[in-house]
Amino acid sequence: MKKKLVAGYAIGFMILIVAGIAQAAIVQWATNGHYYDAIAFPSGITWNDAKTFAENSTYLGMNGHLATVTSVNENSFIVNNLGGPSAVNRFLLGGFQPAGSPEPGGNWQWVTGETWSFTNWDPSEPNNAYSGGAIFNSQATSTSEEVLHFYHNAGQWNDVPLMSGWGGLIVEYEPSPVPLPSSMLLFGSGLVGLIGYIRFCRSHVRHTF
Fold this sequence. Notes:
- By secondary structure, the chain is of the alpha+beta class.
- Helix content is 33%, strand content 26%.
- It folds into 2 domains: 177 residues, Mannose-Binding Protein A, Chain A, CATH 3.10.100.10; 28 residues.
- The termini are far apart.
């Protein structure tokens, strides 16, 4: 029985891996140095599962997260370099509304905590009005829309229910800030002290004569 269960889990894991297929080559945006990847899930994936998938993804030693789009240039780069508008249509992004947020447009946030300032909503969105379908959890009692994906083949945005499943996700990888070595900090503080000492000596010499 245990062997069957282990085999079942292994098969399920393999199905999950195979289900996620890279849509296009990972690309880097020179403006911010971040990398982006489009992962297709033809059978659909929910936002929570997409978030987990992204955060468990790595590339060149960098950890991933659902993409956060903070400018029109970043939005255009992602769409145009990951297969085009049709390829990333309905792919999930890292935007969400915490429970209890004013609907339809209140308190939207990025998973990274970045400032929510730029938006690229479709003209009729967000509207918190779900037309039905693609609900993965049959026990879901609410179809309020509180997560974000690309929409309408033009790189615009739409809000969808948390428990709805869509065709993929955009993963973003960003280099971590390189900490300044403590030896460099000590050198810097020592240099400041040396400059101060030289200025003191010069001042003292001028006043002596």
